[in-house]
Design brief:
Length: 463
């Protein structure tokens, strides 16, 4: 088992409590290592000392193998907008199951979900389905390259667009590897990617107009697209400034470069996605997560003249996939979208504001340098009071917080709060003020528990 650094009696007590509450998870994790490397098949859900094995979810609650109950603030990394076991989603999926799962033929649920999304998301005139956000961004980039006849892509430092080769550029570089802040190095996130993949990727700092402008000017004749998350998700829930997205829209139009918004996570920000909130319409948009109502899905869409390259009648771009437009995901997605009304967005976003304020107040009351970033129903805890504007701000805070996020995460699990181990919380629509209070109270207790540890090992975080 991987060792976690300096510990004192409080952190040892947190670990002991976790071991005691989750004996079955520990056994299962050990069984899992028989055939899964490290017992794992999705690294983002692994955490120290072993992940909790869940068995059931109901609304915004989730239950583990040992019978512990948690408020689910993970929501499968933001994708379960309506929580678990939503009655209407369950009904349509069950009905579809009794008719068969997938047919090797089109199914009307595909264009029904497509119609709903095209109606809602300003940039999407035409759309195609795939099975993950990874595929969606890979295909949007391919479309941009085919449309422009150019190869280079601009990607934000810290941007996460899934696990295909191009997307693995500078996802989480160390600050040493990352180099000059104004002109960052391209740092592979994973081994096994041909070096020349990154010859076609230019990395820019998020929210930095001047540095991005210089990069665009330096590569203007070679650029197919700029891909950006309007709110950076994995990098620490960092909203773009409106000025930055407006700048990207204007300059890409002027230079004949396509603008891709990766809204795989941010469709949960507003009825028509973050692009509607920011009032900026990209050329292409990628989606995933919430549009599948809890089933695996991805989609990419945008301007009709670009998307028509995929038409099997006169198109020139290939896009297949055994499970594309899977009827189970489509029928679940239709209901998930129908249930995501403007009112529902307002309610969940207001709860997000309340949670951010509640957590910020706890840090201030207890005297710990902590804060939240985010927007709408997404937020991330950072151990700093400095503003988080880009990847490096987030990384600096992370580097300065040692093992505190690990113990905060475990302590919150012990208090019945399930969130991403990186400190991200995602709300779901069944939540109400009670669940917000539950999280804020748990974070308060965890801060009180961890304050002596912070004093001892991270004194710079005591305020
Ligand atoms: C913004 C963004 N793009 C793409 C992806 C990749 O999606 P998937 O995990 O479905 O491949 C994610 C996943 O977290 C994401 O947050």
């Amino acid at each position: 088992m991987k060792k976690v650094g300096s510990q004192n009696k409080e952190t040892q007590a947190i670990l002991d409590c976790y071991f005691k509450r989750t004996t079955k998870s520990r056994e299962l994790n050990s069984e899992a290592t028989r055939s899964l490397p490290g017992g794992d098949t999705r690294q983002s859900v692994y955490f120290y000392p072993y992940p909790t094995y869940m068995v059931r979810g109901e609304g915004c609650y989730i239950f583990d193998q040992d019978g512990n109950q948690y408020i689910d603030y993970m929501n499968n990394y933001t994708s379960l907008f309506h929580g678990h076991n939503h009655r209407k989603i369950r009904e349509v999926v069950t009905k579809q199951l009794t008719c068969g799962t997938v047919f090797g033929a089109p199914h009307k649920s595909q264009f029904e979900l497509a119609d709903i999304i095209c109606e809602r998301v300003p940039s999407i005139e035409n759309i195609r389905f795939c099975n993950s956000g990874t595929e969606a961004t890979m295909l949007a980039i391919r479309a941009a390259r085919a449309y422009t006849g150019k190869d280079k892509i601009i990607k934000m430092e810290g941007g996460y667009h899934g696990t295909h080769d191009v997307a693995e550029a500078s996802v989480s570089p160390s600050l040493e590897e990352a180099g000059d802040a104004e002109s960052p190095n391209v740092v592979p996130y994973s081994r096994g990617i041909p070096e020349n993949t990154f010859e076609n990727v230019v990395i820019v700092p998020f929210n930095n107009v001047q540095a991005t402008k210089s990069a665009i000017h330096a590569h203007r004749d070679e650029l197919a697209a700029i891909i950006v998350e309007p709110v950076m998700n994995a990098a620490g829930t960092i909203p773009a400034t409106k000025e930055y997205l407006r700048f990207l829209r204007d300059i890409t139009k002027k230079e004949g470069i396509l603008l891709i918004f990766d809204e795989v996570a941010t469709l949960r920000m507003s009825f028509g996605g973050a692009q509607q909130y920011y009032e900026i319409t990209p050329d292409l948009t990628t989606l995933g997560k919430i549009i599948g109502g809890g089933l695996p899905v991805g989609a990419f869409g945008g301007r009709e003249d670009i998307m028509s390259m995929f038409s099997p009648k006169e198109g020139t771009l290939h896009h297949a996939g055994t499970f594309n437009g899977h009827p189970l995901a489509m029928v679940a997605g239709i209901v998930a979208m129908q249930e995501s009304t403007i009112e529902v967005y307002k309610q969940v976003n207001a709860l997000g504001d309340s949670l951010r304020k509640g957590i910020n107040d706890v840090f201030a009351d207890i005297g710990i340098a902590g804060s939240t970033s985010g927007m709408g129903s997404l937020l991330t805890i950072h151990y700093t009071t400095n503003e988080i504007k880009d990847y490096r701000d987030s990384k600096r805070a992370q580097d300065g917080s040692g093992q505190l996020p690990t113990f905060m995460h475990l302590c919150l699990l012990n208090h019945g709060i399930f969130m991403a181990s990186r400190g991200q919380l995602a709300l779901s629509t069944p939540m109400r003020e009670d669940e917000i209070r539950g999280a804020v109270n748990a974070i308060r207790e965890a801060c009180v528990t961890l304050k002596p540890y912070i004093h001892q090992f991270l004194p710079h975080l005591i305020k």
